[in-house]
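R.M. (postdoc): so does anyone remember the format we settled on? I'll just put the structure tokens first.
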């Protein structure tokens, strides 16, 4: 079962990448990359670093409510090491992030994990708001695109849907069996251990109620998403064919790119390329042009995350970060 958790996303990634690039000329793609204005790539990278620093600062606001005060850089290295781990194992970054902060600042993993879950919930709400705004204003366009996107690939994804449904049914059966034996299970030592872990996670989840700087918390929540938008928008200026794209189209790409990156595949590979590549069709670009541009944008973001994520893992693992003394 544990192996399936990694094998299925990997297979899905391969299938999505195959469908995305099956008709692409690699020589033309490399040629397009070589013509890019790398000044704007640098600007996009700087904006990305600032967004992650902002995320680290917002995380510290939650941690301080529970009596922990890691430095901004400790939280930043932890955040970046988590992003790096997500490229290797899907959804493993959250555990890596909390483990790194425990090593550097003695923040218990379970409490840190609760705050990370809270962050993910807030990000999900923000994503839902952005999607709702986009659907209301671009409903006609997206009805056509969504039907084309899923209509073409539904048969390919059907086996994965069946497996997901079967696993969900087995999971519900297991939960029901455990529920029927709950009185006996309460006396197990492992149950007592997990109960304490769950309580600490809940403590992290509810830490938002006691945030001492609510304005700063919500400011950074909005600021992070503004920077995400700008990271993609400035990349329009890298090519002649995209430098005149409007700011609203940057918003469209932000939303569709976020959905693609949220897909259950490592680093959004395949899903991001297909969705963002398709969206470029709204500005009368060919499928190949859209895919080249989507690949360029995804590659820029990925390279920066891998570089700084790799540095962060070294900083944490080699003990280059000074531990905070009580």
């Amino acid at each position: 079962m544990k192996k399936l958790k990694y094998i299925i996303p990997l297979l899905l990634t391969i299938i999505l990448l195959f469908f995305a690039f099956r008709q692409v000329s690699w020589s033309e793609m490399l040629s397009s990359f070589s013509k890019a204005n790398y000044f704007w790539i640098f600007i996009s990278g700087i904006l990305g670093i600032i967004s992650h620093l902002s995320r680290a600062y917002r995380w510290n606001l939650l941690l301080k409510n529970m009596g922990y005060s890691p430095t901004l850089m400790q939280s930043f290295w932890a955040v970046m090491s988590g992003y790096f781990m997500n490229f290797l194992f899907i959804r493993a970054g959250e555990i890596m992030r909390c483990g790194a902060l425990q090593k550097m600042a003695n923040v218990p993993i379970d409490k840190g994990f609760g705050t990370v879950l809270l962050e993910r919930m807030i990000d999900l709400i923000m994503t839902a708001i952005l999607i709702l705004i986009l659907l209301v204003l671009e409903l006609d366009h997206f009805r056509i695109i969504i039907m084309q996107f899923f209509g073409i690939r539904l048969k390919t994804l059907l086996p994965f849907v069946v497996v997901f449904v079967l696993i969900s049914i087995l999971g519900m059966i297991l939960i029901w069996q455990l529920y029927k034996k709950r009185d006996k299970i309460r006396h197990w030592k492992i149950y007592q251990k997990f109960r304490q872990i769950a309580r600490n996670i809940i403590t992290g989840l509810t830490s938002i109620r006691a945030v001492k700087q609510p304005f700063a918390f919500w400011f950074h929540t909005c600021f992070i998403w503004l920077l995400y938008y700008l990271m993609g928008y400035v990349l329009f200026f890298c090519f002649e064919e995209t430098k005149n794209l409007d700011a609203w189209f940057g918003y469209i790409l932000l939303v569709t790119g976020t959905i693609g990156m949220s897909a259950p595949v490592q680093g959004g590979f395949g899903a991001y390329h297909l969705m963002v590549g398709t969206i470029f069709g709204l500005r009368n670009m060919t499928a190949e042009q859209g895919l080249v541009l989507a690949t360029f944008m995804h590659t820029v973001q990925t390279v920066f995350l891998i570089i700084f994520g790799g540095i962060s893992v070294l900083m944490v693992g080699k003990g280059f970060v000074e531990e905070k003394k009580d």
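R.M.: ...and that's the designed sequence above, right after the tokens. Also worth knowing: The mean pLDDT is 77. The chain has 13 helices and no strands.
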